[in-house]
Amino acid sequence: MNKNQKLLLIFIGLCMFLVVGLIAYNVLMPKPEVQPDDIEVSQRSVLEETVEKPQEPQTKEYVNIYFIGKNEHNEEVYKAVKREYNKDVDGSKIRFAISSLIMGPRTEERQRGVYTEIPSGSEVINITEQPDKVLVNLNSNYVYGGGADSLYKRLYQLIKTAKLNSTLPVYLYIDGQKADVVGGEGIMISQPLSDSSLEN
Fold first, then answer.
1. CA–CA distance, 107 with 180 (Å, rounded to integer)
2. pLDDT tens readout for residues 94-142
């Protein structure tokens, strides 16, 4: 055996020693635990891939409530104020609109010159929605104080707000009694409420 053959055998022996050593190292050495974050996305289970579906934006709804204000000629007019409405929170449109009307304008609406003729202390006793009509029952504070002119205006505020927010006939009750005549001045009301209800 010549010198070159001896060198070749030594080289092959070294290579085999290295290969065997690497295999032994991989087999015998402990492997670190694989954490969930180390798993590639393609290896995750279907359950782990579940992503919450983004919610579709809901269309906003509004109601219009009639208060009073001034036009560009400084004349007193009925002003419709738009309020955002959520049926899941606020109930029906007519219920939300009438309740909002009785509570009066908000601070930012008052700052824009909007006001109401509905006296403080006025309250909604209940609003009964039936298949063929709506009954709005207010307390007596609604019809007293302020004189005939003020009473006409607050009645029109109610009529306009009711008509705009319900397709059903709306009837006004005061303290549980149908309001055919209201106030100290004895203003007559024809029902259901309409633009001609006070034309007597």
1. 34
2. 999 999 999 999 999 999 999 999 999 999 999 999 999 999 999 999 9
Taking the C-alpha atoms of residue 96 and residue 64, their distance in angstroms, rounded to an integer, is 10
162: exposed, middle or buried (Cβ count in 10 Å: 0-12, 13-18, 19+): buried
Would you say 65 and 161 are in contact if contact means Cβ atoms under 8 Å apart? yes
Task: Report the pLDDT value the prediction gives residue 88, as an integer from 0 to 100.
Answer: 81
pTM, two decimals, is 0.69
Closest CA to 126 of 99, 162, 151: 99
Instruction: List beta partners, residue 76.
Output: 70
Contact 124, 138 (CB under 8 A): yes
3-class state of residue 81 by DSSP: strand
Domain layout of the chain by residue ranges: 61-188
Contact 110, 141 (CB under 8 A): no
Q: Is the pLDDT score of 30 beyond 60?
A: no
User: Count of H helices and E strands in the chain?
Assistant: 6, 8
Q: What is the mean pLDDT of residues 168-183?
A: 95
Ramachandran sector of residue 121 (left: φ over 0; alpha: ψ -120 to 50; beta: rest)? left
Cα-based distances in Å from 44 to 22, 36, 37, 54, 74: 31, 9, 10, 21, 70
Q: How far apart are CA 34 and CA 20, in angstroms?
A: 26
